[in-house]
Amino acid sequence: MPESNRPNNRLYLASQSPRRLELLRLIGFAPEMLQADVTVDETPLPNEAPADYVLRLARTKAQAGEATRIAHGLPPLPVLAADTTVSLDGRILEKPRDADEARRWLAAYAARGHQVYTGVTVVAHNRMTEALSSSDVHFRALSDDEIEAYLASDEPWDKAGGYGIQGRAAAFVAHLSGSHSGVMGLPLCETAQLLREAGLRT
């Protein structure tokens, strides 16, 4: 393929999430993982709303990624970062600290709804753009045995809210209103729009 006809689909993903890498590839982009030189503090601010929290973290991670790109003299590709959290009754649920906390959360989700928020930020051409995805997720009733079996898997520990919809917890979801990929960690509709605005094509 002539160079002029090659798709302009390359970007940096300021994240170590294999799920986000896979989702970007799914819609035709060619992301490269970029490890920022600094670690972003993910502690929620006092009284911070879940939507504000994920947007702030996505923004901070994208800025850290862009600073790392510049410091290392890497090509000027767009930098994308995202952050996801689960909210139950307005409370931010990060990654569970232990099995007891994960157990309480899963029991609290059962037979009721909770919200999943994902913020996405793209830094390109000295400009920052961002988007927010909000989804309502309703779990069916869960038995104690189902919760214990899920805790025995590797899924709860590295995920906001203690579950991954792309894995075994998909069997718990009775209804979802919003973005399925956003609950996974990257809302593809909003992300594709941000990357198109940054000049990328697939």
Describe the structure.
The protein is of the alpha/beta class. The protein contains 6 helices and 7 strands. It has a single domain (3-197), classed as Maf protein (Alpha-Beta Complex), CATH 3.90.950.10. Mean pLDDT is 94; it is low at 1-5. Strands 1, 2, 3, 4, 5, 6 and 7 form a 7-stranded mixed sheet that branches.
| 3D shape | elongated
CATH architecture: Alpha-Beta Complex
Q: Return the domain count.
A: 1
Strand content: 25-35%
Number of distinct beta strands: 7
Instruction: Compute the separation of the termini in Å.
Output: 14 Å
Assign a percent range to the helix content.
Answer: 25-40%
- Rg over CA atoms: 18 Å
**What's the SSE pattern?**
EHEHEEHEEHEHH
The unreliable regions are 1-5
Individual helix count: 6
Please describe the biggest sheet, giving its number of strands, its sense, and whether it closes into a barrel: 7 strands, mixed
What would the CATH topology be? Maf protein
| Overall pLDDT | 94
